[in-house]
Design brief:
Length: 236
């Protein structure tokens, strides 16, 4: 993420931040601080945004694309914790504690990533009540998401795991910009669920047969979000 040609211009950067509700709630001086110190970059699919056990120098957001939060071991095996679609922000826990990052961050689609320096984050946290409220809400919702992910992985069958992984991308507080038509491939969804592309395909077909989803090439349209959110929860 160091190629200058991939860095978003200052004018475009301001537009990206103005699209974020938390930014609009800041005082003008705090908005100026964010714009003066932050940056955004365009990254390709497969790009590493941040590394596990590296300093948590930035609070990270997604404007477009899709990132995954995962751990990779020395043999190359991975465990994915979460996907972060457009509108999502993450990493506040490690930034607050000034600790090494607990997971790798990898783009699974071409993405525009927003980076707020740790010093700016702490300045806002100390001086801005709206920002503090937003971060508290983020931490609460993120904890709920991770608990649900562990529960779903251990207790649900594959079809339900796929349904719940999709449903998590529509959390209105964590991911307010997610569109009901997701530009995501079966392989990319496999990264988020830990299932093979073939098994993901079977699950998606089952959900489509129920009228919950409509499928197209590298695209999933949610037809009934309420049913998607409830699918498989009777197994718990």
């Amino acid at each position: 993420m160091s190629d200058v040609s991939n860095i978003v211009s200052a004018g475009e950067l301001a537009d990206l931040f103005r699209a974020r509700a938390w930014f609009g709630a800041l005082e003008a001086s705090h908005q100026d601080l964010v714009l003066a110190t932050s940056r955004a970059e365009r990254v390709d699919s497969g790009a590493w945004i941040a590394r596990r056990n590296a300093p948590s120098d930035y609070w990270l957001g997604v404007h477009t694309g899709l990132l995954k939060l995962a751990i990779y071991n020395e043999s190359g095996r991975s465990c994915t914790f979460s996907g972060v679609p457009p509108g999502g922000w993450f990493g506040e826990g490690s930034v607050i504690k000034r600790e090494l990052r607990k997971y790798d961050v990898v783009a699974i689609q071409p993405s525009v990533v927003m980076l707020v320096p740790s010093a700016t984050f702490h300045a806002l946290l100390s001086a801005s009540l709206p920002f503090s409220h937003f971060v508290i809400g983020q931490l609460n919702d993120r904890m709920g998401e991770f608990i649900a992910s562990i529960q779903n992985h251990r207790l649900l069958d594959a079809n339900a795991r796929v349904a719940q992984s999709l449903a998590q991308l529509f959390n209105p507080r964590l991911y307010p910009s997610t569109d009901l038509t997701l530009a995501i491939s079966q392989e990319e969804l496999g990264y988020l669920t830990g299932l093979s592309r073939q098994r993901v395909n079977q699950a998606l077909q089952a959900l489509a047969d129920l009228g919950i989803l409509a499928l197209a090439y590298n695209q999933i349209k949610v037809l009934d979000l309420d049913r998607l959110r409830q699918y498989g929860l009777d197994q718990i």
